[in-house]
Amino acid sequence: MEDGRSSAPVPCAAGPTGTAYILQFEDNDNAIVLVGGANQDWPGLASLLGGNEGSGLRAAIGRSSAVMLQREVPDHVNVAVAQCAAALGKDVFMDVGGTDSPLDPALLPYLGVVAPNESELTFITGVETKGPDGKPELQRVRAAVAALKDSCRAAGNPSVEVLVTFGGEGSLHFGAGWDGAGEAAADGALPLECRMGSFVLGTADGRPVDTTGAGDCFRGSYVAARYADGKGVAESLRWAAAAASLACEVEGAMASMPDRASICERLEGPMVGAPPASPGAPAPQAEMPAGLQPASAWGIGEVSPDASLVQRVEGKSRKTWRFSDLSRERVQVAVSSVGRPVHADIQLWLGPDWTPYTLRAYSEDGKRRPVQTLVGTRCKAAMVEVRNLGESEFPFAAAANYAKDPMASLPIELPASTPGERVDGGALRSFALDPAAGQVEVVLLTDGRQLNARVELLVGPNNPKQSYEVFTNNGELNSLCVAFDTPDAGATVRVVNHAPVEFPCYIHVRERRV
């Protein structure tokens, strides 16, 4: 046994082994050509699955947490194994990859979870999941899932779950009791639907190196988390998404499979993307593990749920975002990295030569403590520039978008709901944070005079982990509104007013448990 894997119960057949040829395309999609070989030759299957002896395939199934099947072996083998697993009280997880034909009806009564991607869902149900533009549509996916559940129900299996994957767009889980009915939530999800996005990749250009095996990694990791570790659906989906993102960063199938420590580290990173949403519905957001509050609306995945506004900013370069809606006055900006330091300069441009607001942001670790801020546009046509002041070895991802309520009103709501403290020019104030706080929101404003100040997060004596340094000619129209993620206990927020004594500012601080 190696790393918990063992092939001891599997006999070797005469003749060539099964072979899979994986074709990788320029768009990072892939296709597989299978040569069955020994995968199609199963002599003595009944003896392998019969009896109660302490060795062999039946014994291995009895020791397992769940049984995972795929279709590169004959249907009758899967049926026999599924029957054995059901007799031993084991959950059966069906990865439908390996062929483009419908599922064997004899298999349907024994399946606990069926896990296709959006194309395989069409193959096994005959229901098209993609629209005219070639992209999956939620209503079509739901119709295909309903057809699959109807087939299982007719076979005496009314409680099957369906897990559909969408590559880099994430995944969508339909629970055992899902019937397509009920009132949709704010993100368009129906009851017993669980959605999950994908993690930002840690590659130099933010793109996959090799997607071979990523789907297998996702499903295997989901099964391990759900059945071996006992995690809930949402937490298992997130674990699987982290594992699959790591698999995309390494060339080769087996070589790309990550270890547990790497997955745990990736779980701390930002997520983007989401499965297809209903027409007109807000884009769905990534789910958080059970027992945790949502990680607020500050993250880069909240600024651009479909990642269309996320830009990679190389060291010593800049990116811009244009805003022209005169009815909206607040832009949300987020910057994150894959664990590298972040040195960013964020500017608001109004017209060709006026920059009324400049924010210098620093983070020691852009993954654990991303840059998160709101910038007022004064209801004018504006452009936001994000410049990477770091070296070329330290790129980061940035996104900017109009803020939506409640984020758009936060610079007004937070001062109205929390006590403020006056900080005179040249003065300093410190605020010790509750060790249980996972995030702290800060608003720094004036009565219309200039705002020239620095607010920073300290961990330990005089040890800044993150800082924001702002200058604006009007601290009422352009207050500083930022969020600090606080993964370390014993943190302190400190503000320094760099302006002359005649220009006081006011600070409001609110802690959140995330």
UniProtKB/TrEMBL annotation:
It comes from the Eukaryota. Residues 15-259 form the Carbohydrate kinase PfkB domain. GO terms for biological process: phosphate-containing compound metabolic process. GO terms for molecular function: kinase activity. Coiled coil: none annotated. The keyword Transmembrane helix does not apply. Keywords: Kinase, Transferase. Transmembrane segments: none annotated. This is Carbohydrate kinase PfkB domain-containing protein.
